Each structure stands twice: as C-alpha cells, then as structure tokens.
Amino acid sequence: MRKRFIPSLVALIVLMSAVGLRAESSSGGKSGEVRAAYGVIGRVLPSYRNDFRLELMKEADGRDAFEVEATKGVVTVRGTSAIALTRGVYFYLREATHSQFTWEGEHMNLPKRLPDFAPHRVSSPYEYRLYYNVCAFGYTTPFWDWKQWQREIDWMALHGINMPLAMVGQEAVWQKVWKDIGLTDKDLAAFFTGPAFLPWNRMGNVDRHAGPLPQEYIEKSEALQKKILNRMRELGMSPVVPGFSGYIPKAASKLYPKSDIISMKPWDGFSPDDGTYMLSPLSAAFPEIGRKFIREYRKMYGYTHFYLADAFNEMTVPVTPQNRYKELSDFGRAIYNSITAGDPNGVWVMQGWLFGNDKNFWDVPSVRAFLKDVPNDRMIIIDLANESFHGWKNLDSFFGKEWIYSIIHNFGGHNQMFGNLPFYAKDPVDMLSDPNHGKLVGFGISPEGTENNEAVYELLTDMCWTGNRVEIGNWVDDYALSRYGALPQNMKLAWRYLLKSVYSSSMGAPLFFYQRGPELHPYESGLESADFDSAAYLFLSCSDSIRHSQLYTDDAIEIAAQYAGNTADSLLNKAVQAQAAGDAAARDRAFAEAFRILPRIDKLLNAHPLYRLKRWVDFAREWGSTRRAKDYYEQNAKLQITVWGGPNLSEYAAKEWSGLIDGYYMQRWKRFADSLSTGAPFDIHSWEMKWIDTPTHRFDTTAPDNPVEFAKKLVSDCREILAK
Fold this sequence. Notes:
Blueprint: H1 9-19, H2 23-26, H3 29-44, E1 52-56, E2 65-71, E3 74-79, H4 82-97, E4 100-101, E5 106-107, E6 117-123, E7 128-131, H5 136-139, H6 146-158, E8 163-164, H7 170-180, H8 185-189, H9 198-202, H10 215-234, E9 240-242, E10 247-248, E11 261-263, E12 277-279, H11 285-301, E13 306-308, H12 324-340, E14 347-351, H13 353-357, H14 364-371, E15 379-383, H15 391-394, E16 402-407, H16 421-433, E17 439-445, H17 454-463, H18 472-484, H19 489-500, H20 530-540, H21 550-581, H22 584-605, H23 613-621, H24 627-640, H25 661-678, H26 684-693, H27 707-723
C-alpha cells in the first residue's frame, strides 16, 4: 500500500465522519471481505459453498496472490484479498474440474465430491486489474438492472478484477450540483443526453442528443449505483468513479464571465446545437465545481479515491499556437486541482485514448506539458489500446506517471467472432520485461462493449495474473475443454483454424456487408477466409461427442451465423457487381438467395442467450413506468445500435442479433433492391427513422428445436451456394 493511501489517524476519522463508511467498514473489515467472497461462491455454486475454506493471508510484495489446494473434498483457498480468494476459487474450477463461468452461462463439471488438487500458488504482477471502457456504459450496460449487475460483479470477482470503472448514477449528482449553482430542470433537459448516449455527454463530446433524460432514469440509476458500489466495496474492489473535467451545460455560461467559457468545436460532424461548452482552466469556477461534485458524490455514494476525468476525448483541443504548451499545462493542472479540491487524497485517472487517436496533435512535448503539473503518484493513465498504439513506448512511459497497460479489443460492442489471441498472450509479457516500462501499476481490459468473444476475455483475465508468456495453442486446448467438457480431435483442430483466422485478427469493429447501409460499392468484411470455413466444418462435426454442452451450442450458433453471414455478404457483392454490369437477372438472383439466408441466421440467433434484439429492447423498456416512457427507452436503445445520430457514426454499434438481421438489415436491403428493380426512389434515412421510432410490439422469437442441427444444415446449404 503506497503512502498516498495512508492519511493520519485523525484525518481518517474526520474523513469517515464526513463522507460515510470506508469500504472496509461497510463490509466488516477483512472478515467482511471473506464473507463477501463466500457470497460469490454462494451465488455461483450454491450447492458447494461449504466445500470451500477461505482464508486471508498477508501480502508478500504488495501484490495480490492466492494459494489453492484440495483434499478429501475440501478446497482450501488462501488469498491476500477477497478478489484473490475468488480468483483462486475460479482457478481451481478451471484447472481441477475443467469448468467455466461466462456471460453466456456456465459449464460446471462438478462431481458430488470435489477432486483433490495439489498445492498451487499464483501471484499477479499488477497492483490493479482494471475493467471497462467508459463507452461500455453506453454500448452494453445502460439498461441493466441489479440482477444483471450482480452477475457481472460476480464475473469480475471470479476473474480477478479489482479496479472496475463505476460510471452509473452520476447524473443524480450533477443534477444536484447544477441546480445548486442556479440551473433549472429546463436547462438540464438541454444538457443530458438519452441513456444510451450518456458516456459521450460525460466526456464532453455531445449535449442533449436523444434526450431529455427522464427523471425516473436519474433516480433509478442513483439507487442502482448504491448497490453496485456497495457490492464492489464489500469485495475490496477499488472502483473508479467520475470526476470533473471542465464541461458545463450551455445554460451555465450565463453564470460566468464570457472569458471563462470555451465553445468547443462540434464532435464528429454533430450540429453546433449539440455542441459542448468548457470552462477556461483559469476560471475560479473550475476547482469550485470539482469540489462541489466530489463532495456531493461522496455524500450520496460514500468513500471513494479514484476519479476518472477525460477532457479531450476525440475533441479539438482549444489552445492557441503561440501559447500551446502553457495552456495545455493550465488544463492539466485545473483538472487535477478540481479533484483535490474535493478530495485532498484523490487520484486522477485518465483514459489515454486521445494520445493515440490524434497523434498529430499529441506529440511528446504536448503530452508532457499537459501532465507536467500533476504529481506523479497522484495520476494513473490508462494506456487504452496497446493493440494499436503503445502509448507507453511512444510517450516515454508517460514521463514518470503511473499507468495501466490495457487492451480495447472491440469498438461499439461488435459481437462477431474476432480478436488477436496470439498478441494478447505475448505483448503484455514483452512489456513487463522491458526495462523502460516506467511506473506500471496495472493491467486493463477496456472493451467498448462486453458480452462477446468470451475466449478473448478469459485469456485477458488470465494475463492479469501472470508475468509469463502463454503458449496459445495449449491455452486454447484448455479453454475448449473447460468450456465444452470434452476436447475431441476435430475440436482441437477447429480451434487451431480459428486461431489462424478470426482469432489472429487486428480488427476492432468488423461489419458484415449486410449490416452496412445499402450501397453499390462491393465490400469485404475481412471475416471470411478458408481457415475460418475449415474451423466451422470441424467445429460442427463435434456435435455428437459434445451434445449436452450449452456453451458448445452457443458457439455453434455463433460460428454458423458468421459463416452464413459471410455467404450472404458474398451474394450481396455479386448483386451489386451485377448491377454495375447491367445484368438485372443476375442481380435479382443474388439478392433473392441472400434474402433466403438472412432470415435463417436470424432464427438461429433466437436460440442464443445474448445475441437477440429483444433482450436489449426488453432491458430498455423495463426502465419505463408508463407506456410512453417505455417507448422512449426502446427508441433510444434502437437509435444507438443503428444510425447512432452523428453523420459519421451510423452502424458504429451494429450487432449480429436476431431481430436486427431480419427486421432491420434485410428489410433495408430488400427495399434497396426493389428500388433498383423498379426505379422508384428509396429514402433510406426516413425508413431507418421510422423503424427506430416505431415500438416493436411483437418479436418473432421462433428458434430451432435443435439449434446445432439447424446450424449444420445452414452451413451445408451455404457451402453449396458458394460452390455454384
């Protein structure tokens, strides 16, 4: 534990009386952490809770570690924290019983008497194992309830996460702060976005888009965040909560001198009407608003320590050429001071996406200037996307600041099968062995959307707990065995082909052609390859030997849907090429074949536990207390996964989901095809908005009785089509 976490006893007593109980107090100290770890076991393995003996042990080097052994049906796990204990439990489940706990479900291969297990000790090389990207609170979680969050926090605990972002419920605090300084509900209605777009409102990208934000959402989110933070603290996690980065509602500008207000250049093509406003870093209001926000936050939600503040995420930085470095230093100092004004011991956490996203602006002198006035031990930079930009290498390990190595993996929550497993298994280890890695303090898993590509996240969470390079072929074998309960030779080969294709991919946001707005230019998604085709055939051939595994069924659905999606794309490309060649008959034949495949993909995905539009819409509608409110939440949810709202963001959050494929993507293509055939114009945007604005009163939830056999027949039929 570093010195910045140890205030004097008197200061600690004063702090606790002012802001409420600390995490340790809320859970009853270390014994409370053990109880919290037992709570995870009780929810995940209720029949086996008494078969685990959990004990806390002292840290040897300031890092989490656990020891596991099992004899005579009793599993003993010793750990340095609640999270070390729960990770130790999951290590045992994976290694001793070949079990797995995932977003989709679980495979628990547990005999009545748990098997013996020789002693093992595992230590994490990282103080913090961080989870989430702020965008995930738009692309995955904006409509979750406590049931969903409780399972998610259990997933975090079993996978060893101890530093999750916790962004829910901040609008209740901001509403209080803004009203206290004189703003009205009408002012805030023009500021907060709709629920699915709040991350970009919070980062200062856009105001009011798809709003106004309902009061019931603000109040329910407050209640939900209290449950989320209480559970995280019980488990000894260190949640990262929001801080103030300088953005204010437009209406607040009337309260301050004009010289204090910066009108930001609109983000990514949005209208100036949705533009954002920022305080000058020299304004006296900057630290005062930060102080008000943090004190109100702690009053509402309790003790906290880490504050996320992202000032220039994909935004034009408002500095002058002649005073560029001084003004950047002013901004960095102002944000840091706004945090310490409310919490003298606060630590500024910042996502480092801006540095790689705009390398032309954020050169070495600019980054150094922005960071230079912040004490090195009072800031943590999340180096967000090491798969595409090694910020730590390019920026001198952030000039002495503490930092977290992180992987994004996906943008927009895309859920096709993709990822770069060999890279994830190698690059973190290379980084750890580099003598120039500076003040590295953590490993981050930062997807823009979760609940997809579970192999990626099982591997990344494993990498949080090792400093050794993982032999990816052996790891995949172990993963498949734990996931399906069996590893026939064809399954082993199938995963080798997946490794050679979609799981050695550097893509972050693949799109099928059928998901793109209809166009006459051929398009290749990059998901198709002969190796992936071989993987699909081999994977589905294992159905007889792994017939009772639900996770095998889920993966069979995903593989077949992707194979068939590639086939539909091939046909759509044929159609647009025939159109260019003036061959109407060939065009119409290709369209017709594509339109026979897409509904079958849709039906197959109805059998998947996660990949359904109905699930997303149902989550959204549950937030509404009236029919009108429910319709609003549905509209908001559908807007985000389709046109989004900005001119450059359509399909950014596209999903391979039942209900979307047949009901949206294919219908849009069919109308486009009809317009080519008849010559009648098709107003795509008007059609899209009508679909978004019209509540879905009934989903076709018809799923195949035997999804695996349906998947095999779909792949077989597609194979015949491609062979023509």
